[in-house]
Specification:
TIM Barrel; 13 strands; 9 helices; alpha/beta; 6-stranded antiparallel sheet
């Protein structure tokens, strides 16, 4: 807590201006002594979230790191209503993380928020030294996402899920939450693809990942698919690329599926340009069973 006075003043300012606000403070826990905790409590702090650094290069010191951090949390718990941990889960630290969950549960911590560990697109040498690799592929749908976390590292998500199962199996009273990188991306796409309406006869907004999806056929398959759709009274389709592709709503797949055509699912986002909103295609994938 390098800026203790500023932190206390900010909490007091927020509490005065917004009495019903839930005030949360993130910290690594350094210099968080009892006098400072007393000041933060009096300033109106509701929640303290602490980050704990567990490194695969420090496995021999993991118990010491955990005990020191939990001591700080236990101290904070005497002053602040909600005290918890938020930290990335590093591949290779499974044993230490399980012990951390046990210790947090023992001292009555409010919970822990497990974050997927990411490579922030900077120098790679320290990641390489630890034997890390980027998840391949990094995302189900490649896109220039706005969240600054970077690329997910292989093994972090699977360890997060193992820790969730561990907490359930052990019956821990500690709240354990996993905040994946995919969760942040879906939030962006949900907002982005709700910015304006699109042709509901051609596109559907997926209720799970929120991408705009349609089904496409190409080249010589266009005429076959068009005739089948029109024969069923469906005129809501889109001819694109000067007639070299045809897009239609996924609910009509069964009409075209039996034909000798190749069906592709098109995954899209809305993007705002100087001329208004456009639909941008990000990915084509085969329709299974087609």
């Amino acid at each position: 807590m390098l800026h203790a006075d500023e932190s206390v003043a900010f909490c007091a300012y927020v509490r005065q201006r917004f009495p019903r606000a839930h005030i949360r403070l993130y910290t690594a826990g350094d210099f968080l002594d009892e006098p400072l905790l007393d000041r933060l409590r009096d300033a109106g702090l509701d929640e303290l979230r602490m980050s704990i650094k567990l490194d695969v290069l420090d496995v021999d010191r993991a118990d010491e790191i955990i005990d020191d951090a939990v001591d700080v949390l236990a101290r904070a718990k005497r002053f602040i209503p909600q005290v918890m941990v938020e930290m990335p889960v590093i591949p290779g630290t499974g044993k230490a993380m399980r012990r951390l969950l046990d210790r947090l549960d023992q001292v009555g911590a409010f919970g822990i928020n497990l974050l997927e560990f990411c490579y922030p697109m900077g120098a790679w040498d320290e990641f390489e030294r630890r034997g890390f690799s980027v998840k391949n592929p990094p995302f189900p749908v490649l896109y220039d996402y706005g969240y600054a976390g970077g690329l997910p590292l292989a093994g972090s998500e699977s360890l997060c899920l193992e820790l969730l199962e561990y907490a359930l199996d052990e019956g821990l009273s500690l709240g354990v939450h996993y905040c994946s990188l995919e969760n942040k991306h879906r939030d962006q796409i949900c907002v982005q693809n709700g910015a304006c309406s699109v042709d509901a006869g051609v596109y559907e907004r997926d209720p799970h990942d929120f991408f705009l999806k349609t089904v496409k056929v190409f080249d010589g398959d266009v005429s076959l698919a068009r005739r089948a759709l029109e024969a069923c009274g469906i005129g809501a389709f889109s001819l694109e690329d000067e007639g070299l592709s045809l897009a239609f709503h996924p609910r009509h797949i069964s009409i075209v599926q039996a034909l000798p055509v190749v069906l592709c699912r098109s995954i899209n986002v809305l993007e705002e340009t100087a001329d208004g909103f456009i639909v941008r295609e990000l990915k084509l994938e085969p329709v299974k069973g087609a």
